[in-house]
Structure formats: C-alpha cells, structure tokens
Amino acid sequence: MSTQVFILCDKPKDANLIVISFRGTEPFDADDWITDFDYSWYEIPKLGKVHMGFLEALGLGSRAKASTFHEQLFMNNQNFTKLENDATIAPSESSESSTMFSDSDAHSVSDQSPESDRPNDTGSKKFKLDMPERTAYYVVRSKLKRLLNEHKDAKFVVTGHSLGGALAILFPTVLVLHEEMNVMERLLGIYTYGQPRVGNRQLGRFMEAHLEHPVPKYFRVVYSNDLVPRLPYDNKTFLFKHFGICQYYNSLYVEQNVDEEPNRNYFGLRFLIPLYLNAGWELIRSFTMGHMYGAEYEECWESVVLRVLGLFLPGISAHSPVDYVNSVRLGTERSTQMSSF
C-alpha cells in the first residue's frame, strides 16, 4: 500500500524517453522497513528464488498468505492482460476489492479509491480489475504500455534508490516472466542506487540473458560502505546474489566496475578500521562540500545528523542519496580494474 512511483516523459508529444522511478525506503514508514528486513523468499519456476518482501511491495502477493503470490503472478495476469488490451470495456459497478485504471489517470499507485469517490471523466475509458488493491506492478505496466503506444519512438528507463532499486530490477523481471517482449524491446536501461539483493543465482542468470545482449542494460551503482547493497547476506544460508554490472564508487567518488562490491557481507575484522575512518572522513567532508563545489552541494542538517549516526554504525550514512547524487555528478573513473573481495 505504500509503494510510490514517479513516471515522466521528456516531452509532452513525440517523447523519446520515459522514466519510471520507484521511491525508496521512507525513514518513518514501518511497512518499508519490514519489507527491507524480511529475508524470506518465494521460488518461481524457471525464474528462481525472489525476495518475498519486494514481490509484495510490487503488489504481487501477500506474505500472510503465500498462495497469493501464485495467483498474482500467474492466474490474475491472464485476466488482467485481457482487460488491459481491451479498449471497448465499459465501466462497471465499483467494489472494495476492485482496482480502477483510467487512460487519463495521474494518481499515484497507492491512490486507488473506489470509482464513486472520483470525478467522472466521460472522455476516458475506464475498466476495473477484480483483484486486491496492492497492484503496483499492474498499474505501472498499464501506464507504461499506454505511454509507449502514445509515443511510438520512445524507450524507457527504470530506476530507483534502496528499496526503489530492488523494485526497479524486479519490475522488468516480471515483465519477462509475463512474456511482455514487445515492452522489453523498448527498454533502454535499468539504473539502481544502493540496491539490496533481490534473488538467488538462478534469477541472475535468467535475467542476464535478457539484459546483457546485445549491450548491457542493467547497472547497479554502489557507494563506498553502503550497508544496504550488502543485504540480504550472500552466503550458504540466505543464498541471495547480486548480478549485473556493479559501478562502485569509493569515498573519494572514484568509480570502478567490479563484479561485486568489497566486503560483500559487511563483516570482517580487516574492514572494521577502514569503516570507521571512512565514516569520520565523510562527516568532516559534509561541512566542506559547499565551499569545495558550490552552494548546491551544501549538505542539510539532516544529512549531517545521519553522518554522525554513521560513526556508531558505519554504512548507514553511506546509504544516503546525497552520496549517490555526488558520485554521479563528481565521480571520476579509475583506469585499473579493482579486485572484489
């Protein structure tokens, strides 16, 4: 219910680019944090094991009743596709278990009130889907298809930070699962920032076949000691694995392409001292960014407080979007390849 998505086109007519951006974890949203720290997985045949909390955040099932994942991923998909492609469907009576879509919708994914509470637009086609309200994936897919149909030459990019990054890679994953190849052919790229792991090695191999040819389309940006990309753990217990190209930035905003970020499970004595030294350096730097690079880089007091917390738990402050924005804008590429640990 808390999933939020921002969708834009670069031009109102004849757009070339459509951007789908999933919002990340909100600091005071309990649902987001419960999703992040749920390490359970749901196994999808031929696809692999997928983080159950992230699937739920896309509206593809409920952890309270595991059978709903199969219903949302497979059974309801057939009914929805028929509705989605039928331009002659007439409005029907509203019900609490139905979700409404409109060709002229501009509401957020979580804003799905009954039809009786909405203004009636006689110039738009509306249809209803008899399924639970938590259907972020289906709403975004429907909107994307309409935009791609409207802008014939447009391609789309999916992006997100933190939890939003996990949803950004899972959205095209489910598109592939549903054999939406006409949509996937117009995918320009996936860019995630501080993204946690979303599935096992089988999932990675499945998606690499669709995202690496003819050119790589999936780029996972990781800043320094950010804790979140190192969760859930990549070990024999949890089995979660990253895939795709990792663009790793150190604390000096120097970029290197690696297979895996250093200290991939965020523990080990040899990393302990560098973790705290980096946290101290980032706090000191926060007071000088405005002087070094201009007023637009000056950090707010909330960011400084977060860096103070990073002195006690290094890796928390490194997850801030501030460092990811700075990495992209100020980053320089190192010519030598960095070895991963």
TrEMBL record:
Keyword terms, alphabetized: Hydrolase
Domain of life: Eukaryota
GO biological process: one example: lipid metabolic process
Sequence ranges of Low complexity compositional bias: 92-103
Signal peptide limits: none
Biased composition (Basic and acidic residues): 115-127
Domain Fungal lipase-type: 19-234
SUPFAM superfamilies with a match to the protein in the record: alpha/beta-Hydrolases
A Pfam family the protein falls into: Lipase_3
UniProt region (Disordered), positions on chain: 88-127
Species of the source: Solanum verrucosum
Highest classification ranks of the organism: Eukaryota, Viridiplantae, Streptophyta, Embryophyta, Tracheophyta
Record CDD domains: Lipase_3
Gene Ontology molecular function: triacylglycerol lipase activity
Protein name: Fungal lipase-type domain-containing protein
